[in-house]
Amino acid sequence: MPTAEKSDRSSGDNTLFEIQSLLDKVEAATIPPDLKETLIESLTRLNRAMKHGVYQQEYEQTAHYVEWLLGIPWAVRSEDNLDLPKAKEILDQSHFGLEKIKSRILEYLAVLKLHQTEDSEGIIRSFRSNVICFVGLPGTGKTSFAESIANALGRSFGRIAMGGMSNPMVLRGQPRSYAASEPGAIVKTMIRAGTRNPVILLDEIDSIARGAESDIMGVLLELLDPEQNSAFTDYYVNYPVDLSEVLFICSANRMGNITPAVMDRLEIVLMPRYTDEDKVKIARDYLLPRELAITAVDPEKVIFEDDVWPFLIKPFGYEIDIRNIQRTIDGVLRKVARKIVEGNEGQVVINSQNYRDFLPDW
User: Fold this and answer.
1) 335 is in which domain, residue-wise?
2) Least confident piece of the model among 13-27, 34-48, 202-216
3) Exposed (0-12), middle (13-18) or buried (19+): which is 266, by Cβ within 10 Å?
4) Which pTM does this prediction carry?
5) Is a pLDDT exceeding 70 seen at residue 188?
6) Residue 138 and residue 266 in one domain
7) Upper half-sphere CA count for residue 258 (Cβ side, 13 Å)
8) How many domains does the chain have?
9) What integer pLDDT is reported at residue 55 of this predicted model?
10) What is the pLDDT of residues 25-41, one digit of tens each?
11) What HEC string does the chain produce?
């Protein structure tokens, strides 16, 4: 038998084995029954076709599709932790001050607890119609508050960056007829989260690319509307995906670019600006310990004197946001780390006289 013919037969045998492996996975998977039946029919038809010829491209497309669908957490959910004192503790650990914002979040979680229902299978689910939207300047803690809510609930957290988005297919996926098509960001985020009830942050929904607002806001409306999101349409999946248990949170720098229909689904939480005193406490008590752990700098090896903090929150004489204060501290600690590694055996002292020597190079 010619070598090429043996190779073709060997390749075909491997593909048949892989199709059978996919069939076994589909049979064992917990997915909607009608979807399972459709996938089994598709793979069985492909299996028959492969026995009479090589359809490698069709196999790869089908296998790719099946693997994506098997990755969707159709029936996997995490159990909510709605212990309000514990939630308050988590919020206090991750954010200084902002008591009104924390109180608003605890009220939201209390309502979520009251909305819990037990279904026919004895599974307790939490539903909430309105969606929190944090509105404020960059660096005021919008993203970290959303992540803290996920931590307080014990849910997985995912973030979708909306800034500059120009095509609704980024959210909704591409039809399988497109080359190299894949599911949209919503389904991908659920797959990464591994549960059907994660917390998903739609970040900077006011920063969508000009000209694409109406199309993308239309998708957002479907995502955030409880009357529609139980059967979300992803063009690649081509089967309704239930998003009713997803806790969506939005963030925005301003409200002017958000359509009235979407605004109607949002509960706006305005993020206040921090005072200089607040920023000093955040930098010293929250950001510094976090960055020490990230850079692995021994806290015994570095001293930040009290007089240096007013300069670190305004390293160039003007106000910067919390995110940039964190970057400044990170840059300072990287220079400290270099000194330690290069043989500085004593403590590195940073004060108002020498802090410029440690500022990162921008």
Assistant:
1) 276-357
2) 13-27
3) buried
4) 0.77
5) yes
6) yes
7) 26
8) 3
9) 59
10) 888 888 888 888 888 88
11) CCHHHHHHHHHHHHHHHHHHHHHHHHHHCCCCHHHHHHHHHHHHHHHHHHCCCCCHHHHHHHHHHHHHHHHCCCCCCCCCCCCHHHHHHHHHHHCCCCHHHHHHHHHHHHHHHHCCEECCCCCEECCCCCEEEEECCCCCCHHHHHHHHHHHHCCCEEEEECCCCCCCHHHHCCCCCCCCCCCCHHHHHHHHHCCCCCEEEEECCCCCCCCCHHHHHHHHHHHHCCCCHHHECCCCCCCCECCCCCEEEEEECCCCCCCHHHHCCEEEEECCCCCHHHHHHHHHHHHHHHHHHHHCCCHHHEEECHHHHHHHCCCCCCCCCHHHHHHHHHHHHHHHHHHHHCCCCCCEEECCCCHHHCCCCC
Q: Which of 275, 266, 270 is nearest to 254 (CA)?
A: 270
Do both 252 and 138 map to the same domain?
yes
Q: Inter-axis angle of helices 33-50 and 3-28, to 10 degrees?
A: 170
**pLDDT over 90 (residue 234):** yes
> Do 144 and 231 lie in a common domain?
yes
Give domain status of residue 78, yes or no: no
CATH number at residue 256: 3.40.50.300
| Residue 109 pLDDT greater than 90, yes or no | no
- Name which of 35-49, 50-64, 271-285 the model is least confident about: 50-64
